[in-house]
């Protein structure tokens, strides 16, 4: 699932990359002018029934802004941890604007209000916003800044909550207003929260638990020791690492929670120093086992001191009075925390050492992720078989399909539900790369159109994410060609051999070339990291400019696609592990890497035009199918899914390699027959 | 010729990229420990006879440093325009250290002196430095900074000439010393020049001339109008553009000079404002025609006011007192000029609009570059023919070979000599990607080893650069495989179809994949822009991270290679033009690009292993050879070079395409014969 991914400076949606211009080689596109569904100039204004009346909420916020002397207030869509998914109590943008998309920014003044969002969400925004809101069809901070300069008088105050903006985003706003006379004021009291008052959902109170030892790659003490070793070896000798990404703390302590949908994390911060460990969390929510695990070595350098979540700023302030250096990841630390630390006491890198350590899975973590993908493949194969039988009867729609695959995953061992909201899109709906069906307004699957499903599971041993696109009838020539070329891209990148330390960005074009060859392309990124029972989009692995170089032990999705507006959408997504490659030659000390496929589900034979594939691509495909048979076959039998087993055998049959080699074999056979005949004739 | 190229922040040698880690996907390499040729601990110290005694020069500099209160003085290898090649009067590093390599940095204190350079130059530095100098085998500013912190006491003054350092380099030094108590002082009087005194070579006094109209893409007035239009349309409304790159001024005014070897430029700056044009240059050197051309429209907005070269700082200072905004390219503007402009009056982009305009050649400029390459191909074909005949007799060495191809180029119409020092390297010498032979110590070419020549010409209509690698005897299997894979890389990148606005960095791996497949690679960049009778390395086009996205009308070299230490070296370099691609499908408004080969010389058939090539690669090669025949053949005939013409025909014969198609034809023939026989048997 490539739906969300991080562009430089911000957690921004991958599908928005065409607009942001941060996909490989993509320049910003000229935006087409389009009509709004809403007609706010009509009398009375026309609004679709899905619009939310925001007049009261806006009036409340404006009242508070007046008392604070704020002329414009900026409201983002993320939380204090720059999370990709947020909890209900952080859905400030939705409460204020009515817009429920996952990416957007609102700016409110006394007489104006505007929402900025990317093309994935334009239709949704038009359906959800009322006429209080202008819709701005871009997300560039430059554009937001220009709007502010237009509507806020010089000497005006522009304000935001510094704990909801990354360092870079703050800098961009600061830059946009620089020299204009308008001040950018960080206000630690969140004005939307004040307006929201007691209507705001309470924070989660569910249990935070320790992962059983069998599901961890190493103990939290080993992880802490590893990070401290890195601190000692760093040339700048940091005395502490500050963790504000929720995955960082969850991974470090082998703890999980469910504060955020689909991501088993919990609200927390960690300050790991050379001698102490402070975990900022609601202590009462820790399970007894978790509390015990954290307190085993108290007092001492491996004693985790529990502190209130809200105390992180004060603690950090006190800590940085001393002769210390704090190491943090600038890509996801908020400006609110950052500005507490004096400039000379900062060690800034894009990602913290915890993020980097988490990205390279050790042998046990690799085994777990492989195992989770085998069980996940069972669910997906069952789903494909079920679709094949039920779709022709017209009994499945996008929504019931999504429900069915979720259920199939839940039935697998160690399942903890889906890893993101299932994308289940038929026909033209799949051309909206971002599309999730809702009950009641969902398209019926049919043998007359293509169907794309992009789904994944959370298992105690690993997180999965896979996309398959299928057609049960007669695909058009363009559909077949586009599907085959998307598949060729997936294969070309998957079988690439490349030097260690290669940046993903420099090789992701291999996933696009087969499409480029005939003038096709896709507008999103090509892949993202994935966790062990953590996020389905795990930074910093992937193929974008802000991803780190590929290393053995990293997992990434590989997911080229093609989208034909108003007609169909194709995506083929697999998760792959970066492994060392065995090469014919050795050049110096350079080692080479390649990918090992971890997702194990065959592609739709009905959509493959074999004549487009090179012999090498076909051989790769056949070898991949052998791997699928070897790993998923036994698991299907173990689960006594005989019909699915038969389906798998049928769908992983080797393809004929129409290479020169094969043809030569045929020629040889003919020639020997001929020689036999000739000798007979001679006789 | 990829010898020199610019890494982020600095003009740094492309061959040094392995060390700097800015080639695609290259991480910094661990440097091997090696013994110095010098033995400075022996008594008396051992020095090779090539070493220069620098004691007197150092003493002179140290005396001046003492009077200025400078504890450490930093001396770079470049000039005030961040030129890749420099004139003799800017060879400060050579005068001070004895080291004559093109890239390095020296730091001198009262009792220590050290030189930093990259691996290309380690051997040369050991041969040229005396025992006054430590050799530091890296070029990172971090390393220089750490050395300074070690040898300069706290409160010490570290100084440099701000007109010899780019903005980014200054910032890096500033960062490295930040908070250490040591001050970084920009001293506008260059201390080396003071020490050098009247021994310093005088500035060039040769004529600066106008290009004849037939050799320009457009008049300088049209160019100025185009830049002013961009200024008006820019959202930040700059009032002036500051040009400090020598190519910028030369291109803008269609003027040329010969202040710098191989590059037909002259010392100058330009400040182009919305209403005035100031050209800072030694007015007495302008030819009468040049002076007339510049003064045609005086007074008025298209009048070029001539000012003294040395007045640029004072003029810029005066100009920026007003309500102005100065647009400049940060990649190559010096800190000395930059710091004159108040922060709020700067418009900083990586490259000035002149650099960007120069990079996209118009139709006439394209035609001129194509024509220059046809004549250049004639010279190279003549050279290959001559080598074929004379090498077996043992009469050619690297140096005489280089002289011969230079002479062949001089004989071509519009020639103005070589565009860089010819690289002519036989056997193991070619494994040093940077290698130019010198008279007397040059290796004899032989049929027993490979020979690489990387050469280019300056012509009034265009600059050329081409590398061919040949073997007249029996190549080893590895040589043949490596050559073929380098060729496959050249072909794969050359025939790539990609969306417009793709960054070179995201596609350059296509030139490496065939090598990567078997564990081979090369440590330099894959290509660079090239000018119309300007620099052989023209920014900002190319495949590195600081190059701009590819656009139709840009020219770039494509030059993969492979280097086997101590044995042989391979490089295949062509210049290509970015053109629009005709694709089978259209996806939205995205246009696609591809390359058109402009270099027109066949590859060595003796080194190509056809069995490694795909049918598509062979077909591409055959079509390229057809183009060579069509363009170079007639020119050879026109020049009455019949023997070369015959050689060309022989060396551009189509290769057999051993594709499935061909084999199928054979099979069909057999099958029909068989059916005939069978019918006879039946009869």
Question: Can you give a write-up of this model?
Answer:
- The structure is a homodimer of 683-residue chains.
- Chain A is built from 20 helices and 30 strands.
- Chain A has 683 residues and is an alpha+beta fold.
- In chain A, helix 14 packs across helix 15 (398-410), helix 14 (363-390) packs across helix 19 and helix 18 runs antiparallel to helix 19.
- The N and C termini of chain A lie far apart (69 Å).
- The model of chain A is unreliable at 3-32 and 660-666 (pLDDT under 50).
- Chains A and B meet through strand 23 and helix 20 of A and strand 23 and helix 20 of B.
Describe the structure using short key phrases:
homodimer, disordered N terminus
Low-pLDDT residue spans of chain A: 3-32, 660-666
Multimeric organization: homodimer
- Estimated share of beta-strand residues of chain A: 15-25%
Class by alpha and beta content of chain A: alpha+beta
The end-to-end span of chain A amounts to 69 Å
- For the biggest β-sheet of chain A, the strand order reads 6-5-4-3-7-8
Largest β sheet strand count, sense and barrel closure of chain A: 6 strands, mixed
In round numbers, the mean pLDDT of chain A is: 91
Specify Rg of chain A, calculated over alpha carbons.
Answer: 27 Å
Estimated helix fraction of chain A: 25-40%
Overall geometry of chain A comes to globular
Biggest interface, which chains?
A-B, 58 and 57 residues
Q: What's the tally of helices of chain A?
A: 20
Overall number of strands of chain A: 30
